[in-house]
Specification:
Elements (H helix, E strand, L loop, with lengths): L2 H8 L7 E8 L2 E8 L10 H7 L5 E6 L5 E5 L8 H13 L6 E5 L16 H28 L7 E3 L2 E4 L2 E4 H7 L3 E4 L1 H5 L21 H6 L14 E6 L8 E6 L9 E6 L11 E5 L2 H10 L1 E5 L8 H13 L5 E6 L2 H7 L2 E9 L11 E7 L2 E6 L4 H12 L6 E5 L15 H11 L3 E4 L2 H6 L7 E9 L5 E10 L2 H5 L31 E7 L1 H6 L8 H20 L4 H8 L17 H15 L8 E8 L9 E10 L6 E11 L6 H20 L5 E2 L2 E2 L17 E6 L12 H4 L1 H13 L5 E2 L3 H5 L2
Parallel strand pairs: 4-5, 10-20, 16-30, 18-19, 22-23, 26-29
Antiparallel strand pairs: 1-2, 1-9, 2-3, 3-4, 6-7, 7-8, 10-13, 11-14, 12-13, 15-23, 16-21, 17-18, 17-20, 21-22, 24-25, 25-26, 27-28
Helix pairs in contact: 3-4, 4-5, 11-12, 16-21, 19-21
């Protein structure tokens, strides 16, 4: 794919090239976006085009004669209630009766367009097209109702699932039953549609419960791990000693043959080479598959990273950042080199993070069957348009022969963006010629995780004779998820030396104004070869901003300034920091606003002995989709033991229009707790080429007794809505570390933060 095509795919719907069709099909009203230039079907009317499906639509919703409205959702549901948020956008503009609205999560039929759920993009990318789809539907319903009621179109209004004219009204269901629809909106007409101002919205921004809560609580919701197919065989994989390069020398299944229900094993051959050195064990039940796999004795020729350790990767990171010939420029404002020659003083620091994992509640899994040459894959996945071609390549069939049936995800957090866990399942099904359900145990899931890579980042700040900051250099090295999984998404560096992973560099292009600012990004090839670096919730921002916001505090200390006042002095919104419409109107000024509100809120807090409040800011997943957030961490440190207690976290959030308040609050709460867990608890150091902690007895995320009080405040705004799934993670760790410095005078520069680091400093 070209970069332009990738951009179009990422943005899902390019309305400049699409018509919106409204037509009656089989008694229901169907509404869909369709390409402007397509097959011969578009030379006929909208009704015939929809009926005959002579095009590749992005179908949004339909209304039946009973007035029931079903809205199709091409996003993955993993606890964030994305379907409810998107449905409320459509329903509000449509003027629907919310009690009549339902949602359907769709499969990978090409008509749904490019499918990805990640990067906190869903509401941000979908808000405008869904609003316009709802508005187009409203207009079509009004036009049809006016004919039925024999009244002027301009005197009709829509409210709560009905069109009203004076004292008369007609429900959506009756309009569909009695009316005729055959309407096409051109791209120009779509862009000119009148959308509701915030004051007229009845659903967006208003409290509500998610539509899928009943099914999730009564057990009827189907997750990937719940799928059952007739005649299926259970399978469990045996994970090789290294991610890459391992080969199976021999398999001894004599002990497994004594287990009732054991059906055999297969050494998997993957033409795509994503799965290397794998063995699949088959059985008539999941529990037998577990037991039999444990009984198998597999001899391997291990890959070249079999002896690599966490420290090896970190040492390589340190070597890379010290070598100025490595990597490529991500930011190059002013002239840092020239400013350095004139500097009176400078400070330096190195920040590191360790391997962290996803540990979703539901271990990865996939259930597969082949019917009449088509492969049906039932699983929970976040990036179907990336995963489906990989499955096809492994099976050596065309993409058209793969259908992914989307199931609920029992936790995603980025692990299920690239669904490589489906590949051993399809290869096993192909080998035995039967449907297969492959479920990874917790240990299997951990060893096959796509962990967040260890990282090393160096900072240098320079100062003039007045001790004022004149520039900053930031260099970092880590494994890059996009390099292995989706290299087509990687743009060139500013100096044209390499291609950069945008998800492993975002955050370094911050919103502070600096005369001289240089950022160099480096891929740590040793990390890349040892693990498959993954998209862990907040991705690069989680480790990049950890160092950045901690070092900004170091600079504030150097210039003897209050940490908040120092930040505010650089959040001036000048030049590129002014932002742009629609996603970042106000730019750095909005970040300054949430920080000012945080300052006002925390000024009056009374602190006990050995307590302090540290602060940090974050600006969302990317500059092209910022969510303005300021965090304060109230922390206690026990002097003798160094025990760290996060007593309270306060977050001020400006994310524009909040579409689904309950979902938004849950997202911020969850991300703040995730950030706390990463800051203080989570790591799985690489040992002998593998993660060392494979279950929750040794991998110890945040426990309930360590959960801090959360105080979250949303800024009321009518600006464009942006994503909230990940940004709340980012500022937590540096805010905690900055509080620790105020209490102890110790700068903690490694994640996770440990008591030992404080005591031994």
């Amino acid at each position: 794919m070209t970069m332009k095509n990738i951009k179009d795919a990422k943005n899902n719907v390019s309305l400049s090239r699409r018509r919106f069709l409204v037509g009656t099909v089989s008694g229901s009203l169907l509404m869909a976006f369709a390409p402007l230039v397509s097959a011969a079907g578009l030379s006929t009317n909208a009704q015939e085009t929809l009926k005959n499906k002579l095009f590749s639509p992005t179908v949004w919703f339909e209304i039946n004669p009973l007035g029931d409205i079903n809205i199709n959702i091409a996003k993955a549901e993993m606890g964030q209630h994305v379907g409810t948020a998107l449905a409320r956008v459509v329903a509000d503009e449509l003027g629907a009766d919310w009690s009549k609205v339902s949602i359907t999560h769709v499969d990978t039929d090409p008509k749904w367009g490019y499918m990805v759920t990640g990067g906190s993009w869903s509401v941000f990318q979908s808000f405008k097209p869904l609003s316009q789809a709802g508005a187009a539907g409203r207009i079509a319903l009004i036009e049809a109702a006016a004919k039925i009621l024999n009244c002027p179109v301009e005197e009709c209004r829509v409210e709560n699932g009905a069109v009203h004219y004076q004292q008369n009204s007609i429900s959506f269901g009756d309009i569909v039953a009695k009316g005729s629809f055959n309407r096409t909106f051109t791209p120009d007409e779509i862009n000119a549609l009148p959308l509701k101002p915030a004051s007229k919205r009845t659903l967006v921004g208003k409290p509500s419960s998610a539509l899928d809560i009943p099914s999730k609580t009564n057990g009827s919701a189907v997750y990937g791990i719940d799928v059952e197919l007739k005649g299926m065989v259970y399978a469990r994989p045996i994970i090789p000693p290294t991610r890459y390069g391992s080969k199976v020398i021999s398999v001894d299944d004599s002990a497994a043959q004594k287990i009732k229900g054991y059906l055999g094993y297969h050494i998997l051959q993957d033409p795509s080479e994503l799965i290397q050195g794998w063995v699949a064990v088959e059985a008539d039940s999941y529990y037998v598959a577990i037991k039999a796999a444990d009984a198998l004795k597999v001899t391997y020729q291990a890959g070249k990273t079999a002896k690599v350790s966490e420290e090896d990767i970190l040492k390589e990171g340190a070597r890379l950042i010290a070598d100025e010939s490595e990597g490529g420029l991500f930011v190059n404002e002013g002239d840092f080199a020239a400013a350095s020659t004139k500097a009176e003083n400078s400070i330096n620091a190195v920040y590191r993070t360790h391997t962290a994992m996803h540990f979703a509640l539901e271990p990865v899994n996939a259930t597969v069957e082949e019917k009449e040459g088509r492969w049906h894959v039932y699983t929970g996945n976040q990036w179907q348009s990336l995963t489906l071609p990989a499955i096809a390549k492994a099976l050596q069939v065309s993409d058209e022969n793969i259908v992914m049936h989307q199931q609920y995800l029992g936790g995603g957090f980025g692990r299920r963006l690239f669904g490589d866990y489906a590949i051993p399942a399809v290869l096993t099904a192909k080998a035995i010629g039967k449907p297969v359900k492959m479920v990874f145990t917790r240990e299997d899931d951990s060893r096959f995780d796509q962990p967040r890579s260890p990282s090393v980042a160096s900072f240098k700040a320079i100062f003039d004779q007045k001790n004022e900051l004149t520039g900053m250099e930031h260099t970092f090295a880590a494994g890059w998820p996009t390099l292995s999984m989706a290299p087509g998404f990687m743009p060139e560096s500013l100096d044209k030396k390499i291609r950069l992973d945008p998800f492993s560099t975002s955050g370094a292009d911050h919103w502070y104004s600096m005369d001289n600012h240089r950022v160099r990004a480096i891929n740590n090839s040793l990390a890349q070869q040892t693990i498959l670096p993954g998209f862990l919730r907040s991705v690069g921002q989680g480790w990049i901003v950890w160092g950045l916001e901690s070092f900004i505090d170091e600079i504030a200390h150097q210039v003897k300034a209050d940490p908040i006042d120092f930040r505010l002095s650089m959040l001036d919104g000048l030049g590129k920091q002014a932002g742009k419409a629609p996603e970042s109107v106000g730019g750095a000024k909005r970040l300054a606003n949430v920080l000012t509100l945080l300052q006002q809120k925390t000024n009056k807090v009374k602190l006990a002995k050995n307590e302090a409040i540290g602060i940090a800011v974050s600006a969302g997943q990317e500059r092209t989709m910022p969510a303005w957030m300021a965090c304060a961490a109230q922390v206690h440190v026990e002097p003798n033991s160094g025990k760290i207690t996060v007593k309270k976290l306060t977050m001020i959030v400006d994310a524009g229009v909040i579409v689904h308040p309950d979902g938004a609050l849950a997202q911020v709460q969850g991300s703040m707790l995730w950030g706390t867990s990463l800051a203080l608890h989570e790591q799985s150091p690489i040992e002998n080429g593998q993660v060392s902690n494979t279950n929750l007895n040794t991998y110890t995320p945040l426990r309930m007794n360590d959960v801090p009080e959360l105080d979250i405040e949303f800024v009321e705004s009518e600006e464009f809505p942006v994503g909230l799934g990940e940004p709340g993670v980012v500022a937590i760790a540096p805010a905690i570390a900055n509080a620790i410095f105020q209490i102890t005078g110790v700068r903690v520069r490694d994640l996770p933060i440990t008591s030992a680091a404080i005591i031994n400093a």
